[in-house]
Design a protein that fits this description.
The chain is α+β, with helices and mostly antiparallel strands. It has four helices and ten strands, in the order H-E-E-E-E-E-E-E-E-E-E-H-H-H. The structure holds 2-acetamido-2-deoxy-beta-D-glucopyranose (2 copies). One 2-acetamido-2-deoxy-beta-D-glucopyranose binds next to loops.
């Protein structure tokens, strides 16, 4: 009896430790110095296969140096600097982005399923917020030099209510944070979400669903 009791206590402790160590970091830890992503390799795994050779250019990206165009519908533009642009980030568990906002621009409510985000305001002022699973909005106005954090997986947004453009640098604890923009996910999915799901979920009519769909539809060029 006593031995069995000790064993089950041990089993519970192992379970707790395993749970904690799995949930502390975002991307899995690396097993070697580098594993530069071979983005064209057909092998599918958690991350990308490693290239046999690499050099400094696999760890380099100049794409965040300049502001991006912000004349889109939302008046914002996210320029990613993740493993897709910087193959050397594969297995390293970090990435960046630059977000530019026109006056009035919005980075609409979205989530990153694989990363916490921390932003640093380069220029301008923003009203930012995230919503907890208890449905509480945590929000603040931030300005040049300020930092704000969006916890992993929670819905969040940034709005430029100022009269001048704004820019932030965003850091993520994932090589590829992933993004789901709430409105676009629901109203512009390939194979549309059934209309009766949207009418009931949002308590609106079919005409309103079609109106939102046509306004959010990606522009065909
Ligand atoms: C890295 O290797 C690629 C070819 O694989 C080459 O085009 C590039 O110039 C090299 N860059 C550096 C910084 O050595
Ligand atoms: C974002 O900026 C880039 C570079 O200026 C531009 O090519 C792209 O069309 C812009 N995207 C949107 C959604 O405005």
């Amino acid at each position: 009896m006593a031995a069995a009791g000790k064993l089950s206590v041990l089993a519970i402790m192992v379970l707790i430790i395993a749970t904690i160590s799995n949930s502390v970091s975002a991307d899995p830890d690396l097993l070697q110095d580098v594993c530069v992503a071979d983005l064209n390799n057909a092998v599918k795994m958690n991350g990308f296969a490693c290239k046999p050779t690499f050099n400094a250019s696999d760890f380099f990206f100049a794409g965040l140096a300049k502001p991006a165009l912000t004349n889109s519908l939302m008046g914002s533009n996210v320029t990613a600097a993740n493993v897709m642009q910087i193959p050397g980030l594969n297995t390293l568990g970090v990435s960046l982005a630059r977000i530019d906002y026109a006056p009035g621009g919005l980075n609409p409510p979205h989530t990153h399923p694989r990363a916490t985000e921390i932003i640093f305001v380069l220029y301008g002022e923003l009203d930012v917020g995230f919503i907890t699973t208890a449905n509480v909005l945590v929000s603040k106005s931030i300005k040049q030099g300020d930092i704000f954090t969006f916890p992993k997986g929670l819905v969040h947004f940034q709005k430029n209510n100022g009269k001048v453009p704004a820019t932030v640098i965003a850091a993520f604890d994932s090589q590829l944070p992933g993004v789901q923009v709430i409105a676009a996910s629901l109203f512009t999915a390939t194979t549309p979400v059934p209309e009766n799901v949207l009418t009931l979920a949002f308590q609106i009519g079919p005409k309103e669903v079609q109106k939102i769909e046509s306004k959010l539809a990606p522009k065909k060029s």
